[in-house]
Amino acid sequence: MEGIGGDGPSTATAALKQQRHELSRLFQYFLDKSTPHAHYRWTGTFALAFVYALRVYHLQGFYVVSYGLGIYILNLLIGFLSPLVDPELEQSDGPVLPTKDSDEFKPFVCRLPEFKFWYAITKAFCIAFLMTFFSMFDVPVFWPILLFYWIVLFVLTMKRQTMHMIKYKYIPFNMGKQSYKGKKPSASSPDPRAD
Predict the structure, then answer these.
(1) How far is CA 134 from each of CA 68, 140, 142, rounded to the nearest angstrom?
(2) What's the pLDDT band for 90 if we cut at 50, 70, 90?
(3) At 76, is the secondary structure helix, strand, or coil?
(4) Which ranges does the record mark as transmembrane (predicted)?
(5) Which residues are 110's β-sheet partners?
(6) Helix and strand tally (H, E) in the chain?
């Protein structure tokens, strides 16, 4: 009689933890598989953003949710465009941005890597989309004021970030694989392959 009813809740809890662990591993597996496919990931995120925008337009509401989403995306964008070690704020022993033309080139390292940037934006759109199903998040506001304030905030923030990028001469993204060519032989030195 001692074993009856005593193991029920603990067995159910263990089975639930095991199932949760398996789902977590499966989700991580698919995330890892999607890592090299940036174009497909971003296409899916833009499709999700389009569906979210259609839902907000159709419902004619949830402007505060959209404003919060916009502020969050702006915050993520600043992290993506910022260097890991900001030369204005701190000194580091690791790679830093060159501040003079004579400085050695060091690669740009984002504070927020592209994959984490994509994942955070996608998760934010999913959460905002789910919030549109609950009327308690539909706070009545005059949306043009929120839109105007967000545009002003975006312009001022991007202006400051662009000035920082110009000052320290870095570009936070690359456009494909770079190809390097060897040194071109000078006109005064003969080509050793000509013999």
Answers:
(1) 16, 14, 20
(2) low
(3) helix
(4) 40-58, 64-85, 141-158
(5) 83
(6) 5, 0
